[in-house]
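Narrative progress, year one. The postdoctoral researcher (J.K.) led the effort to move from monomer predictions toward full complexes, under supervision of the PI. The following entry was the first complex the group processed end to end, covering 541 residues in total.
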Amino acid sequence: MKEIIRVQNLTFTYDAGQPPVLKDINLVIRAGEYLAVLGPNGCGKTTLMRHFNGLLQPSLGDVLVNNLSTRMPKNLRAIRCHVGMVFQNTDNQIVGMSVEEDVAFGPGNLGLPPAEIRLRVDQALEQVGLSAFKTRPPHTLSGGQKQLLALAGILAMDPQVIVLDDPAASLDSVGHQLVLRLLNTLKNQEIGIIHVTHNLDDLAVADRVLVMEQGALTADSSPAEILTRVDWLKSLGLNPPKLVELIWQLNQKGENIHTNIFSVDDAAAEIYRLLHAARKQSQPTSAGDPWL
Amino acid sequence: MTVVHRRDPRVKIIATIILSIITLQATPVELICLSLFVAACSLWARIHPRVMLQALRPAFPLFLCLFLVYALTTPGRPLLPLPDRLWRLSYEGVYFGCGQIWKFFLLLITACILTATTTQSDLALGLKKLLQPLQVFGLSSDDLALMLILALRFIPTLREEMNRIKEAQLARGASFQVLRRGGIQAIAQFAQSLSCSVFQRCDDLVAAMEARGYQPGYRTYLHELAFTPLDYWILAVLLLALIAAFAVH
Protein backbone atom coordinates (compact mmCIF):
# COMPACT_ATOMS: atom_id res chain seq x y z
CA MET A 1 0.00 0.00 0.00
CA LYS A 2 1.18 3.49 -0.85
CA GLU A 3 2.52 5.57 2.00
CA ILE A 4 0.50 8.78 2.51
CA ILE A 5 1.65 10.28 5.82
CA ARG A 6 5.11 9.88 7.36
CA VAL A 7 5.81 11.34 10.78
CA GLN A 8 9.51 11.50 11.67
CA ASN A 9 10.73 12.29 15.19
CA LEU A 10 7.87 14.73 15.71
CA THR A 11 8.21 16.87 18.81
CA PHE A 12 5.91 19.82 19.37
CA THR A 13 5.75 22.57 21.96
CA TYR A 14 3.09 25.31 21.96
CA ASP A 15 5.29 27.82 23.81
CA ALA A 16 9.07 27.80 23.91
CA GLY A 17 10.32 26.76 27.34
CA GLN A 18 7.20 24.73 28.10
CA PRO A 19 7.30 20.91 28.20
CA PRO A 20 6.55 19.34 24.80
CA VAL A 21 2.97 18.30 24.02
CA LEU A 22 4.18 15.67 21.54
CA LYS A 23 7.39 13.73 22.16
CA ASP A 24 9.44 12.08 19.42
CA ILE A 25 6.61 10.46 17.47
CA ASN A 26 7.36 8.20 14.50
CA LEU A 27 4.56 6.88 12.37
CA VAL A 28 3.65 5.80 8.84
CA ILE A 29 0.07 5.83 7.54
CA ARG A 30 -0.72 4.06 4.27
CA ALA A 31 -3.50 4.51 1.72
CA GLY A 32 -6.84 2.97 2.65
CA GLU A 33 -5.86 2.21 6.26
CA TYR A 34 -8.39 2.67 9.07
CA LEU A 35 -6.55 3.93 12.13
CA ALA A 36 -8.15 4.39 15.52
CA VAL A 37 -6.39 6.72 17.94
CA LEU A 38 -6.95 6.26 21.68
CA GLY A 39 -5.73 8.04 24.75
CA PRO A 40 -6.87 9.94 27.84
CA ASN A 41 -7.90 13.61 27.59
CA GLY A 42 -4.98 16.00 27.14
CA CYS A 43 -2.56 13.34 25.87
CA GLY A 44 -1.96 15.21 22.58
CA LYS A 45 -4.28 13.39 20.16
CA THR A 46 -5.82 16.56 18.70
CA THR A 47 -2.40 18.23 18.49
CA LEU A 48 -1.06 15.25 16.53
CA MET A 49 -4.10 15.29 14.22
CA ARG A 50 -3.55 19.00 13.49
CA HIS A 51 -0.05 18.16 12.27
CA PHE A 52 -1.38 15.78 9.61
CA ASN A 53 -3.27 18.63 7.94
CA GLY A 54 -0.55 21.26 8.32
CA LEU A 55 -2.57 23.31 10.82
CA LEU A 56 0.41 22.97 13.20
CA GLN A 57 4.06 22.66 12.22
CA PRO A 58 6.50 20.48 14.18
CA SER A 59 8.92 22.12 16.61
CA LEU A 60 11.33 19.30 15.80
CA GLY A 61 11.15 16.52 13.22
CA ASP A 62 8.97 16.39 10.12
CA VAL A 63 5.50 15.48 8.91
CA LEU A 64 5.39 14.49 5.23
CA VAL A 65 2.12 14.08 3.31
CA ASN A 66 2.73 12.42 -0.05
CA ASN A 67 6.37 13.46 0.45
CA LEU A 68 5.36 17.14 0.87
CA SER A 69 6.61 18.69 4.08
CA THR A 70 4.00 20.52 6.17
CA ARG A 71 6.73 23.05 7.05
CA MET A 72 6.60 24.59 3.56
CA PRO A 73 3.67 27.08 3.23
CA LYS A 74 3.51 26.49 -0.54
CA ASN A 75 2.66 22.80 0.10
CA LEU A 76 -0.23 23.50 2.45
CA ARG A 77 -3.05 23.74 -0.10
CA ALA A 78 -2.02 20.41 -1.71
CA ILE A 79 -1.62 18.80 1.72
CA ARG A 80 -5.08 19.96 2.82
CA CYS A 81 -6.49 18.55 -0.40
CA HIS A 82 -4.91 15.13 0.38
CA VAL A 83 -5.77 15.09 4.11
CA GLY A 84 -9.23 16.34 5.13
CA MET A 85 -10.11 17.05 8.74
CA VAL A 86 -13.40 16.92 10.63
CA PHE A 87 -13.30 18.65 14.01
CA GLN A 88 -15.05 17.80 17.25
CA ASN A 89 -17.51 20.69 17.22
CA THR A 90 -19.16 20.66 13.82
CA ASP A 91 -21.20 23.82 14.49
CA ASN A 92 -18.03 25.90 14.36
CA GLN A 93 -16.76 24.52 11.07
CA ILE A 94 -19.81 25.14 8.91
CA VAL A 95 -19.16 28.11 6.66
CA GLY A 96 -21.96 28.17 4.08
CA MET A 97 -25.46 29.54 4.45
CA SER A 98 -26.97 26.42 2.92
CA VAL A 99 -25.90 22.78 3.02
CA GLU A 100 -24.73 22.74 -0.61
CA GLU A 101 -22.85 26.03 -0.26
CA ASP A 102 -21.00 24.69 2.75
CA VAL A 103 -19.95 21.57 0.85
CA ALA A 104 -18.83 23.84 -2.03
CA PHE A 105 -16.49 25.82 0.24
CA GLY A 106 -13.53 23.41 -0.04
CA PRO A 107 -13.71 22.89 -3.82
CA GLY A 108 -14.14 26.68 -4.18
CA ASN A 109 -10.88 27.18 -2.26
CA LEU A 110 -9.18 24.88 -4.76
CA GLY A 111 -10.35 27.24 -7.54
CA LEU A 112 -12.38 24.57 -9.36
CA PRO A 113 -14.84 25.72 -12.06
CA PRO A 114 -18.53 25.95 -10.96
CA ALA A 115 -19.58 22.91 -13.06
CA GLU A 116 -16.93 20.74 -11.33
CA ILE A 117 -17.95 22.13 -7.93
CA ARG A 118 -21.60 21.26 -8.65
CA LEU A 119 -20.62 17.70 -9.61
CA ARG A 120 -18.53 17.18 -6.48
CA VAL A 121 -21.17 18.75 -4.20
CA ASP A 122 -23.92 16.50 -5.58
CA GLN A 123 -21.73 13.39 -5.31
CA ALA A 124 -20.61 14.17 -1.76
CA LEU A 125 -24.15 14.92 -0.56
CA GLU A 126 -25.42 11.71 -2.12
CA GLN A 127 -22.60 9.75 -0.49
CA VAL A 128 -23.54 10.97 3.00
CA GLY A 129 -27.29 10.82 2.31
CA LEU A 130 -27.99 14.56 2.64
CA SER A 131 -29.13 15.25 -0.94
CA ALA A 132 -32.66 16.00 0.26
CA PHE A 133 -31.35 18.76 2.56
CA LYS A 134 -29.09 20.59 0.13
CA THR A 135 -30.94 23.91 0.20
CA ARG A 136 -31.54 23.86 3.98
CA PRO A 137 -29.68 26.27 6.30
CA PRO A 138 -27.09 24.18 8.18
CA HIS A 139 -28.22 25.31 11.64
CA THR A 140 -31.55 23.50 11.12
CA LEU A 141 -29.81 20.08 10.86
CA SER A 142 -29.48 17.63 13.75
CA GLY A 143 -26.09 16.93 15.39
CA GLY A 144 -25.58 13.72 13.38
CA GLN A 145 -26.55 15.44 10.13
CA LYS A 146 -24.10 18.29 10.85
CA GLN A 147 -21.35 15.72 11.33
CA LEU A 148 -22.31 14.14 8.00
CA LEU A 149 -22.31 17.61 6.41
CA ALA A 150 -18.79 18.23 7.72
CA LEU A 151 -17.75 14.90 6.20
CA ALA A 152 -19.40 15.80 2.88
CA GLY A 153 -17.45 19.07 2.86
CA ILE A 154 -14.24 17.06 3.13
CA LEU A 155 -15.31 14.36 0.65
CA ALA A 156 -15.98 17.06 -1.97
CA MET A 157 -12.25 17.85 -1.85
CA ASP A 158 -11.53 14.24 -2.89
CA PRO A 159 -9.07 13.45 -0.05
CA GLN A 160 -6.87 10.37 0.34
CA VAL A 161 -7.15 10.43 4.12
CA ILE A 162 -9.84 11.83 6.43
CA VAL A 163 -8.99 12.72 10.02
CA LEU A 164 -11.93 12.69 12.45
CA ASP A 165 -11.32 14.25 15.83
CA ASP A 166 -13.73 12.43 18.15
CA PRO A 167 -16.81 12.76 15.93
CA ALA A 168 -19.01 10.99 18.49
CA ALA A 169 -18.35 13.55 21.24
CA SER A 170 -21.52 15.54 20.59
CA LEU A 171 -23.69 12.83 19.02
CA ASP A 172 -26.48 10.61 20.27
CA SER A 173 -26.29 6.89 19.51
CA VAL A 174 -28.30 7.24 16.26
CA GLY A 175 -25.96 9.96 14.97
CA HIS A 176 -22.94 7.92 16.08
CA GLN A 177 -24.18 4.88 14.18
CA LEU A 178 -24.81 7.03 11.07
CA VAL A 179 -21.24 8.31 11.13
CA LEU A 180 -19.74 4.85 11.79
CA ARG A 181 -21.71 3.33 8.91
CA LEU A 182 -20.42 6.05 6.59
CA LEU A 183 -16.84 5.56 7.75
CA ASN A 184 -17.13 1.87 7.02
CA THR A 185 -18.36 2.68 3.49
CA LEU A 186 -15.45 5.08 2.98
CA LYS A 187 -13.01 2.43 4.17
CA ASN A 188 -14.33 0.11 1.45
CA GLN A 189 -13.69 2.89 -1.08
CA GLU A 190 -9.97 2.89 -0.17
CA ILE A 191 -10.14 6.24 1.63
CA GLY A 192 -7.85 6.26 4.64
CA ILE A 193 -9.50 7.08 7.98
CA ILE A 194 -7.82 8.34 11.14
CA HIS A 195 -10.45 8.19 13.85
CA VAL A 196 -9.81 9.71 17.27
CA THR A 197 -12.18 8.05 19.71
CA HIS A 198 -12.84 7.27 23.36
CA ASN A 199 -15.34 4.58 22.48
CA LEU A 200 -13.59 1.23 22.26
CA ASP A 201 -16.55 -0.31 20.46
CA ASP A 202 -15.43 1.73 17.43
CA LEU A 203 -12.23 -0.32 17.19
CA ALA A 204 -14.05 -3.25 15.57
CA VAL A 205 -13.70 -1.70 12.10
CA ALA A 206 -10.11 -0.42 12.56
CA ASP A 207 -7.02 -1.98 10.95
CA ARG A 208 -4.61 -0.42 13.44
CA VAL A 209 -4.87 1.22 16.83
CA LEU A 210 -2.55 3.91 18.12
CA VAL A 211 -2.49 4.64 21.83
CA MET A 212 -1.09 7.90 23.17
CA GLU A 213 -0.05 8.75 26.72
CA GLN A 214 1.36 12.10 27.83
CA GLY A 215 2.36 13.14 24.32
CA ALA A 216 4.06 9.87 23.39
CA LEU A 217 2.92 7.03 21.19
CA THR A 218 2.87 4.03 23.53
CA ALA A 219 1.22 1.44 21.31
CA ASP A 220 0.72 0.85 17.60
CA SER A 221 -0.94 -2.48 17.16
CA SER A 222 -3.98 -4.44 15.97
CA PRO A 223 -7.38 -3.89 17.70
CA ALA A 224 -7.34 -7.53 18.90
CA GLU A 225 -4.04 -7.08 20.69
CA ILE A 226 -5.01 -3.74 22.24
CA LEU A 227 -8.39 -5.01 23.48
CA THR A 228 -6.84 -7.93 25.32
CA ARG A 229 -4.95 -5.50 27.61
CA VAL A 230 -8.01 -4.63 29.68
CA ASP A 231 -6.09 -3.60 32.85
CA TRP A 232 -3.94 -1.18 30.91
CA LEU A 233 -6.92 0.30 29.04
CA LYS A 234 -8.70 0.86 32.36
CA SER A 235 -5.62 2.58 33.78
CA LEU A 236 -5.87 5.02 30.84
CA GLY A 237 -9.48 5.80 31.75
CA LEU A 238 -10.85 3.90 28.75
CA ASN A 239 -13.75 1.51 29.16
CA PRO A 240 -13.26 -1.69 27.17
CA PRO A 241 -16.30 -3.09 25.30
CA LYS A 242 -18.71 -4.96 27.57
CA LEU A 243 -18.03 -8.27 25.81
CA VAL A 244 -14.26 -7.95 26.18
CA GLU A 245 -14.64 -7.07 29.86
CA LEU A 246 -16.98 -10.04 30.46
CA ILE A 247 -14.45 -12.48 28.99
CA TRP A 248 -11.62 -10.81 30.93
CA GLN A 249 -13.57 -11.14 34.20
CA LEU A 250 -14.38 -14.82 33.50
CA ASN A 251 -10.68 -15.45 32.88
CA GLN A 252 -9.83 -13.62 36.12
CA LYS A 253 -12.09 -16.15 37.90
CA GLY A 254 -10.08 -19.04 36.48
CA GLU A 255 -11.82 -19.82 33.18
CA ASN A 256 -9.74 -20.31 30.07
CA ILE A 257 -11.48 -18.38 27.29
CA HIS A 258 -9.79 -17.12 24.14
CA THR A 259 -9.18 -13.39 24.59
CA ASN A 260 -9.40 -12.45 20.92
CA ILE A 261 -13.19 -12.66 20.82
CA PHE A 262 -14.89 -9.44 19.80
CA SER A 263 -18.29 -10.47 18.41
CA VAL A 264 -21.38 -11.65 20.30
CA ASP A 265 -21.60 -14.77 18.06
CA ASP A 266 -18.02 -15.83 18.83
CA ALA A 267 -18.53 -15.17 22.54
CA ALA A 268 -21.75 -17.22 22.57
CA ALA A 269 -19.99 -20.11 20.82
CA GLU A 270 -17.07 -20.01 23.29
CA ILE A 271 -19.32 -19.85 26.36
CA TYR A 272 -21.44 -22.72 24.96
CA ARG A 273 -18.22 -24.74 24.50
CA LEU A 274 -17.28 -24.12 28.11
CA LEU A 275 -20.73 -25.02 29.43
CA HIS A 276 -20.79 -28.13 27.25
CA ALA A 277 -17.38 -29.19 28.59
CA ALA A 278 -18.50 -28.57 32.18
CA ARG A 279 -21.67 -30.62 31.63
CA LYS A 280 -19.65 -33.47 30.17
CA GLN A 281 -17.40 -33.44 33.23
CA SER A 282 -20.38 -33.66 35.55
CA GLN A 283 -22.18 -36.44 33.56
CA PRO A 284 -20.30 -39.54 35.01
CA THR A 285 -21.35 -38.50 38.51
CA SER A 286 -24.96 -38.14 37.42
CA ALA A 287 -24.92 -41.54 35.64
CA GLY A 288 -23.66 -43.21 38.80
CA ASP A 289 -26.42 -41.66 40.90
CA PRO A 290 -29.06 -44.37 41.56
CA TRP A 291 -31.76 -41.77 42.01
CA LEU A 292 -31.47 -40.60 38.39
CA MET B 1 -39.85 32.59 -8.15
CA THR B 2 -41.04 35.84 -9.69
CA VAL B 3 -39.33 37.97 -12.34
CA VAL B 4 -37.98 40.17 -9.53
CA HIS B 5 -36.53 37.15 -7.73
CA ARG B 6 -34.82 35.95 -10.91
CA ARG B 7 -32.98 39.20 -11.57
CA ASP B 8 -29.22 39.21 -11.15
CA PRO B 9 -28.36 40.37 -7.59
CA ARG B 10 -25.96 42.99 -9.00
CA VAL B 11 -28.89 44.59 -10.87
CA LYS B 12 -31.00 44.60 -7.71
CA ILE B 13 -28.20 46.15 -5.63
CA ILE B 14 -27.55 48.84 -8.25
CA ALA B 15 -31.30 49.47 -8.58
CA THR B 16 -31.60 49.91 -4.81
CA ILE B 17 -28.72 52.40 -4.77
CA ILE B 18 -30.05 54.40 -7.75
CA LEU B 19 -33.62 54.47 -6.38
CA SER B 20 -32.27 55.65 -3.02
CA ILE B 21 -30.36 58.53 -4.66
CA ILE B 22 -33.41 59.55 -6.70
CA THR B 23 -35.71 59.25 -3.67
CA LEU B 24 -33.55 61.46 -1.46
CA GLN B 25 -33.81 64.39 -3.87
CA ALA B 26 -37.35 63.79 -5.14
CA THR B 27 -40.12 66.39 -5.21
CA PRO B 28 -43.59 65.40 -3.91
CA VAL B 29 -44.81 64.55 -7.42
CA GLU B 30 -41.71 62.47 -8.07
CA LEU B 31 -42.19 60.80 -4.69
CA ILE B 32 -45.69 59.73 -5.70
CA CYS B 33 -44.33 58.26 -8.96
CA LEU B 34 -41.52 56.47 -7.10
CA SER B 35 -43.97 55.13 -4.52
CA LEU B 36 -46.17 53.72 -7.26
CA PHE B 37 -43.12 52.11 -8.90
CA VAL B 38 -41.91 50.58 -5.61
CA ALA B 39 -45.45 49.34 -4.83
CA ALA B 40 -45.61 47.74 -8.30
CA CYS B 41 -42.23 46.03 -7.72
CA SER B 42 -43.43 44.76 -4.37
CA LEU B 43 -46.62 43.34 -5.91
CA TRP B 44 -44.60 41.89 -8.76
CA ALA B 45 -42.33 40.16 -6.25
CA ARG B 46 -45.46 38.87 -4.43
CA ILE B 47 -44.32 40.23 -1.09
CA HIS B 48 -47.30 40.47 1.23
CA PRO B 49 -47.78 43.98 2.71
CA ARG B 50 -47.99 42.39 6.19
CA VAL B 51 -44.49 40.91 5.74
CA MET B 52 -43.25 44.31 4.65
CA LEU B 53 -44.83 46.07 7.65
CA GLN B 54 -43.37 43.49 10.02
CA ALA B 55 -39.91 44.15 8.60
CA LEU B 56 -40.42 47.91 8.95
CA ARG B 57 -41.92 47.84 12.45
CA PRO B 58 -38.58 48.28 14.30
CA ALA B 59 -38.05 51.54 12.35
CA PHE B 60 -41.37 53.12 13.43
CA PRO B 61 -39.99 54.77 16.64
CA LEU B 62 -37.20 56.25 14.51
CA PHE B 63 -39.79 57.60 12.06
CA LEU B 64 -41.69 59.20 14.95
CA CYS B 65 -38.55 60.83 16.39
CA LEU B 66 -37.56 62.08 12.95
CA PHE B 67 -41.02 63.57 12.38
CA LEU B 68 -41.02 65.32 15.77
CA VAL B 69 -37.55 66.80 15.19
CA TYR B 70 -38.59 68.18 11.78
CA ALA B 71 -42.04 69.31 12.95
CA LEU B 72 -40.79 71.10 16.08
CA THR B 73 -37.54 72.61 14.86
CA THR B 74 -38.42 73.88 11.38
CA PRO B 75 -39.27 77.60 11.49
CA GLY B 76 -42.51 78.72 9.83
CA ARG B 77 -46.18 79.55 10.40
CA PRO B 78 -47.43 78.15 13.75
CA LEU B 79 -49.85 75.27 13.47
CA LEU B 80 -51.19 75.55 17.04
CA PRO B 81 -51.48 78.71 19.21
CA LEU B 82 -48.72 77.78 21.70
CA PRO B 83 -46.57 80.26 23.70
CA ASP B 84 -43.34 81.23 21.93
CA ARG B 85 -41.16 79.92 24.71
CA LEU B 86 -42.16 76.33 23.84
CA TRP B 87 -41.09 74.58 20.66
CA ARG B 88 -43.38 75.67 17.91
CA LEU B 89 -45.21 73.20 15.73
CA SER B 90 -45.18 74.79 12.28
CA TYR B 91 -47.02 74.04 9.04
CA GLU B 92 -43.68 73.89 7.22
CA GLY B 93 -42.25 71.57 9.87
CA VAL B 94 -45.16 69.08 9.59
CA TYR B 95 -45.04 69.23 5.77
CA PHE B 96 -41.24 68.77 5.70
CA GLY B 97 -41.36 66.03 8.39
CA CYS B 98 -44.00 64.05 6.48
CA GLY B 99 -41.94 64.33 3.29
CA GLN B 100 -38.76 63.09 4.98
CA ILE B 101 -40.52 60.16 6.64
CA TRP B 102 -42.09 59.22 3.34
CA LYS B 103 -38.60 59.22 1.77
CA PHE B 104 -37.10 57.04 4.54
CA PHE B 105 -40.09 54.73 4.34
CA LEU B 106 -39.51 54.30 0.60
CA LEU B 107 -35.78 53.68 1.14
CA LEU B 108 -36.52 50.94 3.65
CA ILE B 109 -39.18 49.34 1.44
CA THR B 110 -36.73 49.29 -1.48
CA ALA B 111 -34.14 47.60 0.75
CA CYS B 112 -36.80 45.14 1.95
CA ILE B 113 -37.65 44.18 -1.63
CA LEU B 114 -33.94 43.58 -2.28
CA THR B 115 -33.45 41.33 0.76
CA ALA B 116 -36.78 39.51 0.34
CA THR B 117 -36.10 38.59 -3.28
CA THR B 118 -32.39 37.75 -3.02
CA THR B 119 -30.80 34.93 -1.02
CA GLN B 120 -28.05 35.98 1.38
CA SER B 121 -25.40 34.11 -0.59
CA ASP B 122 -26.50 35.72 -3.88
CA LEU B 123 -26.39 39.08 -2.15
CA ALA B 124 -22.84 38.41 -0.96
CA LEU B 125 -21.82 37.17 -4.41
CA GLY B 126 -23.37 40.24 -6.04
CA LEU B 127 -21.51 42.55 -3.64
CA LYS B 128 -18.31 40.63 -4.29
CA LYS B 129 -18.64 41.21 -8.05
CA LEU B 130 -19.54 44.88 -7.59
CA LEU B 131 -16.62 45.48 -5.22
CA GLN B 132 -14.10 43.81 -7.51
CA PRO B 133 -12.70 47.19 -8.69
CA LEU B 134 -11.49 47.76 -5.10
CA GLN B 135 -8.75 45.23 -5.81
CA VAL B 136 -6.86 48.15 -7.32
CA PHE B 137 -6.51 49.48 -3.76
CA GLY B 138 -5.43 46.06 -2.44
CA LEU B 139 -8.85 45.11 -1.00
CA SER B 140 -9.98 41.58 -1.86
CA SER B 141 -13.68 41.46 -2.74
CA ASP B 142 -13.61 37.66 -2.17
CA ASP B 143 -12.53 38.21 1.42
CA LEU B 144 -15.13 40.93 1.94
CA ALA B 145 -17.86 38.63 0.56
CA LEU B 146 -16.70 35.78 2.81
CA MET B 147 -16.75 38.09 5.84
CA LEU B 148 -20.33 39.04 5.01
CA ILE B 149 -21.35 35.39 4.52
CA LEU B 150 -19.77 34.37 7.84
CA ALA B 151 -21.39 37.27 9.70
CA LEU B 152 -24.81 36.25 8.37
CA ARG B 153 -24.15 32.53 8.84
CA PHE B 154 -23.29 32.91 12.53
CA ILE B 155 -26.31 35.03 13.51
CA PRO B 156 -28.56 32.01 14.33
CA THR B 157 -25.68 30.12 15.99
CA LEU B 158 -24.81 33.05 18.23
CA ARG B 159 -28.48 33.62 19.05
CA GLU B 160 -28.69 29.98 20.21
CA GLU B 161 -25.48 30.38 22.19
CA MET B 162 -26.81 33.56 23.79
CA ASN B 163 -30.00 31.80 24.90
CA ARG B 164 -28.00 28.85 26.23
CA ILE B 165 -25.73 31.06 28.35
CA LYS B 166 -28.68 33.13 29.54
CA GLU B 167 -30.64 30.03 30.59
CA ALA B 168 -27.57 28.55 32.32
CA GLN B 169 -27.11 31.74 34.33
CA LEU B 170 -30.83 32.07 35.12
CA ALA B 171 -30.81 28.46 36.35
CA ARG B 172 -28.09 29.48 38.82
CA GLY B 173 -30.17 32.34 40.16
CA ALA B 174 -28.91 35.26 38.03
CA SER B 175 -31.30 38.13 37.35
CA PHE B 176 -31.00 40.25 34.24
CA GLN B 177 -33.19 43.09 35.53
CA VAL B 178 -30.98 46.17 35.58
CA LEU B 179 -32.84 47.81 38.46
CA ARG B 180 -32.57 44.80 40.74
CA ARG B 181 -29.58 44.20 42.97
CA GLY B 182 -26.80 42.42 41.05
CA GLY B 183 -28.60 42.93 37.73
CA ILE B 184 -25.79 44.85 36.05
CA GLN B 185 -23.21 42.38 37.38
CA ALA B 186 -25.24 39.48 35.90
CA ILE B 187 -25.39 41.24 32.53
CA ALA B 188 -21.62 41.85 32.65
CA GLN B 189 -20.98 38.17 33.43
CA PHE B 190 -23.33 37.18 30.61
CA ALA B 191 -21.44 39.44 28.17
CA GLN B 192 -18.12 38.02 29.36
CA SER B 193 -19.26 34.41 28.84
CA LEU B 194 -20.68 35.24 25.42
CA SER B 195 -17.46 37.00 24.36
CA CYS B 196 -15.34 34.01 25.43
CA SER B 197 -17.61 31.69 23.49
CA VAL B 198 -17.47 33.93 20.38
CA PHE B 199 -13.66 34.02 20.46
CA GLN B 200 -13.52 30.24 20.89
CA ARG B 201 -15.84 29.82 17.91
CA CYS B 202 -13.69 32.19 15.87
CA ASP B 203 -10.57 30.12 16.63
CA ASP B 204 -12.35 26.91 15.65
CA LEU B 205 -13.75 28.47 12.49
CA VAL B 206 -10.35 29.75 11.37
CA ALA B 207 -8.81 26.29 11.92
CA ALA B 208 -11.68 24.61 10.04
CA MET B 209 -11.43 27.06 7.13
CA GLU B 210 -7.67 26.59 6.87
CA ALA B 211 -8.12 22.82 7.05
CA ARG B 212 -10.40 23.09 4.01
CA GLY B 213 -7.73 24.88 2.00
CA TYR B 214 -8.86 28.47 2.55
CA GLN B 215 -6.26 31.11 1.77
CA PRO B 216 -7.07 34.80 1.44
CA GLY B 217 -7.63 35.89 -2.14
CA TYR B 218 -9.25 34.39 -5.20
CA ARG B 219 -11.69 31.49 -4.92
CA THR B 220 -14.53 30.11 -7.01
CA TYR B 221 -18.20 29.60 -6.14
CA LEU B 222 -20.94 27.06 -6.67
CA HIS B 223 -23.23 29.63 -8.29
CA GLU B 224 -22.01 31.97 -10.97
CA LEU B 225 -23.84 35.19 -11.79
CA ALA B 226 -24.81 36.00 -15.37
CA PHE B 227 -26.67 39.02 -16.76
CA THR B 228 -29.69 38.38 -18.99
CA PRO B 229 -30.83 40.82 -21.74
CA LEU B 230 -33.62 41.99 -19.37
CA ASP B 231 -30.99 42.82 -16.72
CA TYR B 232 -29.14 45.00 -19.21
CA TRP B 233 -32.40 46.79 -20.13
CA ILE B 234 -33.21 47.44 -16.47
CA LEU B 235 -29.71 48.82 -15.86
CA ALA B 236 -30.01 51.11 -18.90
CA VAL B 237 -33.41 52.47 -17.78
CA LEU B 238 -32.13 53.03 -14.24
CA LEU B 239 -29.06 54.91 -15.44
CA LEU B 240 -31.25 57.10 -17.67
CA ALA B 241 -33.54 57.79 -14.70
CA LEU B 242 -30.54 58.76 -12.57
CA ILE B 243 -29.18 61.09 -15.24
CA ALA B 244 -32.64 62.63 -15.68
CA ALA B 245 -32.97 63.15 -11.90
CA PHE B 246 -29.60 64.92 -11.76
CA ALA B 247 -30.50 67.00 -14.83
CA VAL B 248 -33.86 68.12 -13.35
CA HIS B 249 -32.42 69.04 -9.93
